[in-house]
Amino acid sequence: MQPAEYKFERFANPRFPIYLSSQSGRETLARLHYHTSAEIIQVVAGRIRLLCGSTHTECGEGDLIFVPSSAVHEVISLTEDAAVRGVIYEPAVMEAADLQLSFSALFTAAQRTQYVVASGQEGWQELCACIDRIHVLYEDVSIAARMQIAACLLQLEARLIQLFGLEENAADNRFLKLQPVLDYLRAHYNEKIQLSQLSSLIHVCDDRLIRLFREVTGETPVAWLTHLRIEACIKLLATTDDTIASIAEQTGFGSDTYMTRVFKQKLGTTPGRYRRK
Asked: Is the separation of the CB atoms in 161 and 94 below 8 Å?
């Protein structure tokens, strides 16, 4: 596998950061990369395998995938006719002060899930119509066209928020109470963290923290921390020549033996094989 790296998006108009892409005719439709932009991927034909974060998912013709900003992702063809098209954009395209929300926070903090809308699923037709409309308007540089594109993106994300229950999670008092713990884990995932440290952040006992964590995320604090470390591991494997032992130290796993065992459990391969793939 050729090393991937952070992808610097080169928007034709930096003041209106959005562009379209289409990929077909090769085994790797999008090699391992990440960027601060959000992305909507539509499978135009065939079947693909998507890696997003640390989860692999197979998708077929018509399926839609939302890739949150900074999520490591890769798209591999499973059939010869596999083809995808994407809408890549910065949330700034549609941010409005009146909404008083962070789109990135809605999609990265409230849940850890595959944002896949299968062909024919509730909301799928509406999302496809928005994507088609963006493709029609994209070459029009008028202010009116840009406003319509921003409106389509707002409609897209509003529908995704509804489909995945993100608004309810973000407004849930349980999530608001847990948020300092989630923020701490993301900032300190590469350190040794005791459960009691996390509990003290929100002034609850360890058992209550575990219950609250499960209610909000569906996972334990340890499982969530493991996700963060694996994502960091994938980024370092893709963007550096650091040794496996060094990456294990940098990502909080401590030893390459332990990191390899966890990596294999979650992704079905070892870090070394993943890098050489």
From this structure: no
